């Protein structure tokens, strides 16, 4: 799939405001799609449409730092040392999945790893579904669980 096709399809499931912080959206609006990585968007499309097949919520109401984060985001500003989260690189999102716990969602993704177009990382032991496509150094697994 081309990047254009991926974005056209994923727009059936997500508005850009859900996937980027409020600061980014305020400045770039719809053009904010440009900051999201193609492998990440393709992976998110497959996870939403083919694997979980259930509504996924990223940013909502006052929660605005669950997708792309920028230098103005409080979560970023409060860091006292180098911070290069996949959330800053346009390769990550934290999701709530309708009618499913985060652990259920992680398990379903592991069981359907063959459908994923790219390797994926998931944060373990948290109540939200963090997925990202950072190609972590020396990690070969298709699905890699990490703890922050
Ligand atoms: Zn921000
Ligand atoms: Zn996260």
Account of the protein in words:
The protein is of the alpha+beta class. The chain has one domain: Muramoyl-pentapeptide Carboxypeptidase, domain 2 (2-Layer Sandwich), CATH 3.30.1380.10. 32% of the residues lie in helices and 14% in strands. The chain contains six helices and five strands, in the order ααααβαβαβββ. It has helices spanning 3-10, 16-19, 22-28, 38-52, 74-77, 102-111, and strands at residues 56-57, 92-97, 120-123, 129-132, 143-146. A hairpin with a 5-residue loop joins strand 3 (120-123) and strand 4. Helix 1 packs across helix 4. The longest helix is centred in the N-terminal third of the chain and has 15 residues, at 38-52. It is globular, with a radius of gyration of 14 Å. The mean pLDDT is 98. Bound molecules: zinc ion (ZN) (2 copies). One zinc ion (ZN) is lined by residues 87, 92, 94, 130. One zinc ion (ZN) binds next to strand 2.
Helix proportion? 25-40%
- Order of H and E elements: HHHHEHEHEEE
Q: Separation of termini? A: 32 Å
- Strand tally: 5
Shape label: globular
Measured by DSSP, the beta-strand proportion falls in 5-15%
Oligomeric organization of the protein chains: single chain
Bound molecules: zinc ion
Major sheet: 5 strands, mixed
At the first level of CATH, the class is: Alpha Beta
**Discrete helix count:** 6
- Which structural class best describes the helix and strand composition? alpha+beta
Strand order across the largest sheet:
1-2-4-3-5
Radius of gyration: 14 Å
Number of domains: 1
Low-confidence stretches: none
């Amino acid at each position: 799939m081309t990047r254009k096709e991926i974005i056209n399809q994923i727009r059936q499931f997500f508005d850009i405001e859900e996937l980027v912080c409020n600061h980014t959206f305020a400045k770039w609006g719809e053009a904010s799609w440009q900051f999201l990585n193609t492998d990440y968007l393709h992976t998110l499309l497959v996870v939403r449409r083919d694997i979980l097949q259930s509504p996924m919520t990223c940013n909502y109401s006052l929660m605005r730092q669950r997708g792309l984060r920028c230098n103005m985001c409080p979560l970023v500003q409060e860091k006292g040392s180098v911070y290069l989260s996949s959330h800053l690189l346009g390769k990550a999102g934290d999701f709530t999945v309708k009618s499913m716990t985060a652990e259920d969602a992680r398990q379903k993704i592991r069981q359907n790893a063959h459908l994923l177009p790219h390797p994926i990382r998931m944060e373990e032991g948290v109540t939200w579904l963090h997925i990202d496509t950072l190609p972590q150094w020396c990690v070969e697994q298709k699905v890699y669980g990490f703890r922050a």
